[in-house]
Write a structure and sequence with these properties.
Layout (H helix, E strand, L loop, with lengths): L1 E2 L2 E2 L1 E2 L3 E5 L5 H8 L2 H7 L7 H19 L3 E6 L5 E8 L7 E7 L8 H15 L5 E6 L4 H9 L3 E6 L8 E7 L1
Parallel strand pairs: 7-8
Antiparallel strand pairs: 1-2, 3-4, 4-5, 5-6, 6-7, 8-10, 9-10
Length: 174
Amino acid sequence: MQIGNYKTFETERLLIRPTALEDANFIFKLLNSPKWLQFIGDRKIKSIKDAENYISTRMHPQLQKMGFSNYTILRKSDFTKIGTCGLYKREGLKDVDLGFAFLPEFEKMGYAFEATSELKKAAKKEFGISRLCAITLEENTGSRKLLGRLGFNFREKTHLPGDPTELMLFYIEL
């Protein structure tokens, strides 16, 4: 499946499509959820307008440049927006980063594994990426467990430029 020039993906239970401005309400809710704030950080998204700006200035430029970025995940059964996953080219990381986040009410249902498994396959097949990395806080045991299930291996501790937060860096060869 494809929207415009940008690819979308589908699993048994999920639709995975590039995040659009129409997702601003959902992005506002997700980026202000307790685990996002605890494990990813405050992006200062305090209104729907802030969320629209974040989508258009942070997500869309990479999508336009590289063909991949942040994807909104919808449950097929009712088209509820449940989370995001994405492939990110981050400053300070040599390889493309696989990231994910879900609203609390959709955790522990296998959606994260299903969505990220599909995006991992797409990284190689659709975008020609041969190696992915992933970063997380050491205390984010849920993310660390999922990365292990996906086949990622811990490499080292690292910091992103301008951020003193110590992160665990994982890699996988595709």
